[in-house]
Structure formats: structure tokens, C-alpha cells
Amino acid sequence: MLSNSASQIEAKPIDFCRVCLARDLEKILDLGKQPLANSFLKQKDQDEQFFPLDAYLCENCGHVQLGTNVDREGIFRNYLYFSGPNPGLSSHFQKYAADVKQHVPSWQNDLIVEIGSNDGILLKEFQSPQNSILGVDPALNIESVVPTMREFFGSKVAERILREKGRKASVIMANNVLAHTYDLHDTVAGMAELITDDGLVVIEAPWLGDMFETNAYDTIYHEHLSYFSIMALQKLFEQFGLVLVDLEFQPVQGKSFRAFFGKNRKPSDFAQKIVTMEAQRGWNYRQAFAMLAKKIRRSKNILLRKLDDLKKSGESIAGYGAPAKGNTILNYTGAGSYLDALIEGMPSKIGLYAPGSRLPVVAREAVNPDAFVMFAWNYRPQILEKEKDFKGEWIIPNQIESI
Ligand SMILES: [Zn+2]
């Protein structure tokens, strides 16, 4: 599905905390007005809608969320699913499955549910003759290799699964789902209802700490409604009787966490240590975010100065990778005016134009620039290995130190 300029997408401000429902929210970041980061354009002159891209902090519970709600049907209507090589992802899923199986030894006999199951490749790792696996995913344009319910998960869908399957699930996984979730309360209520007393809910999501540690402000785009600290995540789940029993950090796509929640269990000591560390760093107070906002502005100035110098010395520059997150950087910094194109490995993106910057997305062979801005910077080692013959300069767009 491609964006259809004739249909207007609805957007409205959100004035309560999705985790604790408090109404006192503090604006902490403003990245300007931006189009949807995944809405690549078919034509360079196609109309686009822009929405405020700003983040708010709830000082009551430490949750960080977007200030503007873009209608989810609008996002899904405009959602482009890009199949193709995604470095490291399939081995990530195998390790993910092995980890979950170790946590829930009875998986072979039970009901296993994955929310946001996409094409089903993670859930397929759990297939066994004695168990039952079920994906839940609203996207209609994705082929799935496992049985899939085409719904947004919530308490009603949990009840339907209970009715249809006649039992609870011992594993519920939600991989990169909670950040996209509109009604966190209804979703977690559904999880609490559907999970067995000794089962585990497994959540994987980008960690707010990554924004502080690697200046990863490019995880902010309209599809990502929430930016979780462990402290806020724990507060969300404990309202529904779910205890954080284990926590791990994953290097995939920046730093993500994997959190395991269960009923009537002992909380994880390691998770408590992380929560204490987050509180000590002040990630639930506006002052820490004022410093972060400063760092982000500084990285923008460093990037523009660098690109300006290169241009003045007659060098050509292209972007390496056209991930959604790259569009946040391009549209916040205005760096697109220095670039000729974005190169991309996924054939399905080639020939399109990046939202906002209107940069053409081309194949690697189409350009041979003097310098590359690495938008897929979280795959830095793999990219440098693949491009070891490239003799030009690499620029990391969100770096905070001058070169
Ligand atoms: Zn809150």
C-alpha cells in the first residue's frame, strides 16, 4: 500500500499519560512538524501531511510519550511493509525463541501467543506437535506463515482467544509492539487476562536509555507513541498484577530491552538495579531531558557544519540507508539539502522518495559519492564490513562530538 494524498489523516494532541493517566505532562523535545516517517512517496511532488513531532514527560511515573496522536488507521493505511534482507534479524529471532523456551519449559504443550506477529517468523520457532501457536496482527498486507488473528490486541481480543482456544497462554510475546500501542491499559489488561498463573509475558522494546547514551533521538517518529524506561514499564504492568521477573538488554536495532512479566513472582534484582540507576540519572525529571535536548541541537549543528564544509570543498554526499528513523534526522536537521540521494538495499524502497526531504531512494550501484551519511548507524559494523572498499568519508548523523 502506498500513501494516498487524497485522504486526510486525523491527528490530535494527547493530554494524559498512557501509563499512569496523570494529566500533568511536560514538553521535553520538539523536532518540528514532520510527515510520517514510513510514508515514502511514489512521486517527488506528491502532497504530504505534516504533524507536530514532540515528546512529553510525565514526572509522576517517568513515562515519555509523543504529544500528537496520528490516527492509527491512517498510519496503517500508509504503512509500507518492506520485505528483504534485514541484517542479523533472523538469528536474533532464533536466539529470542531459545531464551523464551528456557524461561517457560512447558512451551511445547501450551498455547503460545505473539502480539504484532508480522510475518510469523518468530512464532514459527515455537511450532510443536502438542502445542498451539497464534499470532495477532492487524496488518492486512502481510503474508503470515502461522495462524494469525487480524486484530489490534486488547482485552476484547484476549477474551475471544480464551473463548476460541478454551485455555490461557503460557507465553505472550510482544516484540516492538508496546511503543506503537495506543491504549496501553487495555493491552496490558488483555495480557493479564490471557496469561496463565505460571506463564510469562515477554516484552521487547527500544529502551529510553538509548536516547541518553547514544543520542538515538531518531527512534522518535509518529509510529512510536511511547519511549519506555524500565521504571515506567514496571509501573504500567504492576497496575495489572504483573511483576517484572527478569530483564535483559539486546543490542538489536540500537539498545532494546527484553522484559519478562509474571504473576505472584519475586521481582528481578537486576531490574530493580536498573530502575534505581534510571532514577539516579533523573530520567523522570525534566532537567535530564533539557540536557538531552541540548545534546540533540548540538548534534544537528555538528552535522550541518560538516556537510557544509564538504559541499564547499566540492564533494558529493549521499545517505547510506533509508530507514524510517533516518527521516526523523533529515526532517529535523534539514540535512537533505546537502545530499543527492539515499542508497538502500531493500528493492521495494528503491524508486521511491523519502518523506519530507524528497530525496530519491536508489540502489547502491547508482551513486559513488565522496562521503556517506550513515542513517542506518545502528548497523555500523556490518555496513563498514560490507563497504570496506569505499574510500570516502563516513558521517554519523547523530554524533555529539566534533570530528
Ligand atoms: Zn504517568
Automatic annotation (TrEMBL):
This is Methyltransferase. It comes from the Bacteria. It comes from Candidatus Doudnabacteria bacterium RIFCSPHIGHO2_01_FULL_49_9. Coiled coil: none annotated. PANTHER family: BLL5978 PROTEIN, TRANS-ACONITATE 2-METHYLTRANSFERASE-RELATED. Gene3D superfamilies: Methyltransferase, zinc-binding domain, NAD(P)-binding Rossmann-like Domain, Vaccinia Virus protein VP39. InterPro entries: Methyltransf_Zn-bd_dom_put (IPR013630), Methyltransf_Zn-bd_dom_put_sf (IPR038576), MeTrfase_14 (IPR013691), SAM-dependent_MTases_sf (IPR029063). Residues 17-76 form the Methyltransferase putative zinc binding domain. Residues 252-397 form the C-methyltransferase domain. It holds the Pfam family Methyltransf_13.
